[in-house]
Amino acid sequence: MLPVKRMRYSYAMLVELGHFALILAFGIAIVQMIVPMVGAHRGNTAWMSLAEPAATVQFLLTGFAFAVLTWAFVTSDFSLQLVYLNSHTDKPMIYKITGVWGNHEGSMLLWMLILTLFGALAAWFGDGLPPRLRARVLAVQASIAVAFFAFVIFTSNPFLRLEVPPLNGRDLNPLLQDPGLAFHPPFLYLGYVGLSVSFSFAIAALIEGRVDAAWGRWVRPWTLAAWMFLTVGIALGSWWAYYELGWGGFWFWDPVENASFMPWLIAAALLHSAIVVEKREALKSWTILLAILAFGFSLLGAFIVRSGVLTSVHAFANDPERGMLILIILAIFLGGALTLFAFRAHAMEAKGVFSTVSRESALILNNILLAVSCFVVFIGTMWPLVADVLFDRTLSVGPPFFDAAFTPFMVGIAIALPLGSILAWKRGTLGRAAKPLAGWLILAVTLAALAYAIQSDNSALGPIGVALGVWVVGGAIADLWMRSGREGFADRIRRMGRLPRADWGKATAHIGMGVTIFGVAAMLAWEREDIRIANIGDRWEVGQFAFQLDDVRQLQGPNYLTTMADISVFRGDREFATLNPEKRFYPVANMPTTEAAISNGVLRDVYVVIGDPQEGGGFAVRVYIKPFANWIWGGAILMALGGCFSLSDRRLRIGAAAPKKAIVKAVPAE
Amino acid sequence: MKRITLILMLLSGPLWGVEPDEILDDPVLEERARDLSQGLRCPVCQNESIDESNATLARELRILLRERLVAGDTDEQAVDFIVARYGEFVLLRPDTSGANLILWIAAPTMLLIALGIGWTAIRRKKAPPAGLTDSEKAELEKILGA
């Protein structure tokens, strides 16, 4: 008996050690916030050089605390209140682990882990930075960590114990027991928090009063990485909504979705404007402002999700008091940053000059459209709150508003993108830019006309989606093709392969954008829906498919009961799939969920949902044919992939991250 | 914690919406009903239209809406009928009355302002013309002429 007892004792200590590590990390963050900043001010090298080890230790301690919490979930330690509330011994192991962040406290700890990870990465990869700038960046980064450590420790402590440990837990919300949603938060946080590095760079630059091309090159990889993660995170969430919520919607313009979309839009603007800073030393103060706003919107997102001031389908862990604290953090950081900006922005003198028709101007247009589209999302999201407080009106702003107000901006961006991205820097001519695109324009219009002729109704949505998609994708291909010289076909292909990865990244991301635009329009325009009561043995047709309800069975899963239907799908006479939609019931959480059955295809998804048994016999069955659905997320993956290519470009690696050896080895280009 | 549980319960139900027995026989009326119900918010749900929600009230509203349409109401009359009972909260597309005008014109206004600022910035950044100014020309001619 004794060894067991001793083991339990030391394991109990583990949780306290994790708790202690978290508090220690808080203390270190405070030191890192103050000492290097003062050191940079006084020119004290020793004080400045404290930042790097501090950032490393801060990350290690937070990592330890996170590991301890994960351990508590894995071993189902119900003496921890958090584990008791969100876990259960029967839960599959993967969801025990992902359950760590399936709740407010745990997700805040994940947020801290990622925040300190980015702080540490900024320290490790900061070798190329001037020491003063580096010290300031890390100090600002630490100040963000201080605010959130305090928030976690004082309001959302994951390590609180229960006096009497219950025998079993209350289980994780079944909706969160799903691969799509399990990995949705980590990606989103990598995005949200990644933008904190761009923010720290912006503040450090404002304190220094200097922004140059090198600054643009340093800040870009961080923004790019954050944007990539946000892209993946948003896509995962949207994909999850598509297959889990039971009717194949993929975007609801819900406050919480908007909360992740706003920083995405601003980050997209930022990573474009940082190119102008890097290449042409223009748009400096604007880029700084975007870096501040991007993280500001991340904080706003945290506020929206965690405060519950805006009703949302996703609202989890609503708590006005916590919301208030996040609002205070938001006010301090955004207010402070904007004040600093107001005093210092004029010091950022632009060097580069450019003519009205130039890549610079095109990127300004890109920034205007992205920033104003973000403003649309912002005002639509906040309006119910504003109307309630200022005008005493209780109203809603839903999808019809956003569809009407937001879509024109995306159409505008899609139209301008191919032209703008091909224009020459400094001084371009529209005619020269338009020439290689003429063929694609003709193709886009032709295919749109074709789509219009084929489709069964007169809606313009589908054809417009086709035209924009072809135009944007074609523009990206034309851009690459133009850079491949003037020799023969084979030679041009070879040269395209040797183009810098940043060029490929740009083209891939833009192609992804085109693919997503097409996917969204095509699916919305051409989807088919069928709702009916079906008895076992019934056969019915939807579009070119026939469906047959073969059986409905009751089964038992690891921690749920399920009603599963067998539905055969035929095209013509050939059976090509058996789909098993389910209705699950999770007894511990006392919650039902729908599990749609989807036959994925490149050209269309067949989406089947089983509903309740009907009074007169039979089951409610819903069938959707969703054309090109996967293109929506495929496009998002391409966008993220484009970011990866760009991030791996030699120029960025050297500028931000490469060890000194690599620079010595580098051979002059061509 | 109770609140969290409540919220989870609310979002627990699959978004399911229209039940087979609600569907009208007349496909044109049904189409109108679907369009309208996508623009009406379920008053007791978190953030769902009555078309998506499986709450009892959403179902009742869907049926009510269809009854109005069958009775011969125009789209506008049918929606007004529901708004009169549940308030403008149910409109997912806010109207343009009063302060709501700000919401609707905010984006276009902001776009115009942004384009204005952008344009000014671009003009200011413009490279100085390659040729000589008039005074420089005069100066040059004076020198050459001399």
What does this molecule look like?
The complex is a heterodimer of chains A (670) and B (146). Chain A is 64% helix and 11% strand. With 670 residues, chain A is α+β, with helices and mostly antiparallel strands. Chain A folds into four domains: 10-173, Up-down Bundle (Four Helix Bundle (Hemerythrin (Met), subunit A)); 178-348 and 355-391, no CATH class; 402-526 and 633-639, no CATH class; 528-630, no CATH class. In chain A, β9 and β10 (619-627) form a beta hairpin. In chain A, α6 (104-124) packs across α9 (184-208), α10 (213-244) packs across α22 (650-657) and α20 (501-526) packs antiparallel against α21. Mean pLDDT of chain A is 87; it is low at 1-7 and 655-670. By secondary structure, chain B is mainly α. Chain B folds into two domains: 2-90, Orthogonal Bundle (Helicase, Ruva Protein, domain 3), CATH 1.10.8.640; 100-145. In chain B, 60% of the residues lie in helices and 0% in strands. The chains are: A alpha+beta (670), B mainly alpha (146).
Q: Biggest interface and its residues per chain?
A: A-B, 70 and 53 residues
Determine the structural class of chain B based on helices, strands and strand pairing: mainly alpha
Count of separate DSSP helical elements of chain B:
6
Assign the CATH topology of the largest domain in chain B. Helicase, Ruva Protein, domain 3
Helix content of chain B: 55-70%
**How many distinct helices of chain A?**
23
| Binned strand content of chain B | under 5%
Query: What is the annotated CATH architecture of the largest domain in chain B?
Result: Orthogonal Bundle
Q: What's the order of the H and E elements of chain B? A: HHHHHH
- Rg of chain B, Å, rounded: 30 Å
Sheet bearing the most strands of chain B, described? none
**Could you list the spans of chain B in which at least 5 consecutive residues all have pLDDT below 50?**
1-15
How widely separated are the two ends of chain B? 93 Å
Mean pLDDT of chain A: 87
CATH superfamily of the largest domain in chain B: Cytochrome C biogenesis protein
The count of domains of chain B is: 2
- How far apart the termini of chain A lie comes to 73 Å
Portion in beta strands of chain A: 5-15%
